[in-house]
Amino acid sequence: QVQLVESGGGLVQAGVSLRLSCAGSGRSFGNYAMGWFRQAPGKEREFVAAITRSGSSTYYADSVQGRFTISRDNAKNTMYLLMDTLKPEDAAVYYCAAKFLYYSGTYYLNEDDYDYWGQGTQVLVSS
Predict the structure, then answer these.
(1) What pLDDT was estimated at residue 37?
(2) How far is CA 15 from CA 18, 21, 51, 54, 118, in A?
(3) The predicted structure's pLDDT at residue 69
(4) Contact, 119 vs 8, CB < 8 A?
(5) Which residues in the chain show pLDDT less than 70?
(6) Hey, CA dihedral for 22, 66, 58, 90, is it positive or negative?
(7) Are 85 and 64 in contact (CB under 8 A)?
(8) Tens digits of per-residue pLDDT, 31-68?
(9) Do the Cβ atoms of 3 and 26 come closer than 8 Å?
(10) How many Å apart are CA 100 and CA 7, to the nearest integer?
């Protein structure tokens, strides 16, 4: 089992960068495929980015492709989301999620695939 805690959110101006972190507790952080999701007010939660257990493969939603970068440091039990050139439409509560895997190098795009979730960190972007 893993507990996830997001941090790094805040209020920023459009065009700047922000890095979110997701710290995982417990052992075997490297056995979890992980992802970032976000939920804007009045909207459903949506997929943002996903990463395999080793970090060797990543996948992004079209809306953030080329602007956001997902990464992880298994030695530090931490996953990151670097968000460049933020837009007002990126404003949302960002959640990290983890899926335990005994093996497999895949990533997951559907929130129903994930077993564990953080409490979220809010990102506000002013225009």
Answers:
(1) 98
(2) 10, 20, 25, 30, 26
(3) 98
(4) no
(5) none
(6) positive
(7) no
(8) 999 999 999 999 999 999 999 999 999 999 999 999 99
(9) yes
(10) 22
Strand order in the sheet with 68-73: 4-7, 18-24, 78-83, 68-73
- Amino acid identity for residue 36 in this structure: W
Q: What pLDDT shows up at residue 89?
A: 97
Residues 123, 71, 110, 62, CA torsion sign: positive
What pairs with residue 12 in β-bridges? 125
Contact 68, 84 (CB under 8 A): yes
> What is the length of the chain?
127
- Record the tokens describing residue 87, joined without a space: 């837009």
Beta bridge partners of 20: 81
77's tokens: 């039990």
CA distance 93 to 45: 9
